[in-house]
Amino acid sequence: MKKRSKNDLALMGLQMLKEGKDRRDVKRFFTAHRINARKAITLLCKQEMVLIRAEHLRQQQ
Fold it and tell me: Quick one: CA dihedral 30, 32, 37, 24, positive or negative?
């Protein structure tokens, strides 16, 4: 498997969250691709905030 950049993994994690995957599954995906557990949690929280902001903006319009 070719090495993926952090941005690629972040986008894939965001897509997984949009599809309704569980946080645990997304974290497992990150750690399977050699991201440290703490960094995986940080990245997961950032992606969740992106989804929350997008939903908030959608509701305002």
Answer: positive
Q: State how far the Cα of 34 lies from the Cα of 43, in Å rounded to an integer.
A: 13
Contact call for residues 51 and 17 (beta carbons, < 8 A): yes
Q: Is the pLDDT of residue 59 over 50?
A: yes
- In the prediction, which pLDDT does 2 show? 56
Work out the widest C-alpha separation in the chain, in whole angstroms: 42
Among left, alpha and beta (phi > 0; psi -120 to 50; other), residue 42 is alpha
6 band by pLDDT with thresholds 50, 70 and 90 = confident
Phi, psi of 49, rounded to the nearest 5 degrees: -65, -35
Helix (H, G, I), strand (E, B) or coil at 33: coil
